[in-house]
């Protein structure tokens, strides 16, 4: 039997293990986290140049949260990751104490996070029918 003739093995959907593309909730949540990481990362130069926040503090807080967002996007296959991501949304809102615009942007991403959970679960339910 040649490589082309072999029946598929493993996951019947063809998705890689841990790939969020097979689950609508994980796909939406990982997209929100990836976009959030970009916005938080862009808050670092604003905090330093415009608001005169210490560069080390701005880099550690905003840069650290951006990295955590990216790591969480990859960890969404675990059941504990969604509640942890929800807690992360609170931390992002709290960066508004350093960069006031982040109060608004953090709340916006919090709404997107909740909407992604709601719409993703709705899509899962529709797919099960």
TrEMBL record:
Top-level taxonomic group: Bacteria
Pfam families associated with the record: DUF4233
Protein name (database record): DUF4233 domain-containing protein
Annotated spans, Disordered: 1-23
Keyword set includes rRNA processing: no
Compositionally biased spans, kind Polar residues: 11-20
Transmembrane feature ranges: 28-48, 55-76, 88-113
UniProt keyword list: Membrane, Transmembrane, Transmembrane helix
């Amino acid at each position: 039997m040649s490589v082309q003739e072999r029946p598929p093995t493993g996951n019947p959907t063809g998705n890689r293990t841990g790939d969020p593309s097979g689950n609508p909730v994980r796909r939406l949540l990982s997209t929100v986290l990836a976009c959030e990481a970009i916005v938080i990362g862009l808050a670092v130069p604003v905090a330093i140049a415009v608001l005169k926040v210490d560069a080390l503090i701005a880099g550690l807080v905003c840069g650290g949260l951006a990295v955590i967002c990216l790591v969480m996007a990859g960890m969404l296959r675990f059941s504990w990751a969604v509640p942890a991501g929800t807690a992360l949304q609170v931390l992002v809102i709290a960066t508004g104490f350093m960069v006031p615009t982040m109060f608004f942007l953090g709340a916006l991403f919090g709404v997107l996070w909740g909407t992604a959970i709601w719409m993703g679960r709705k899509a899962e339910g529709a797919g099960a029918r």
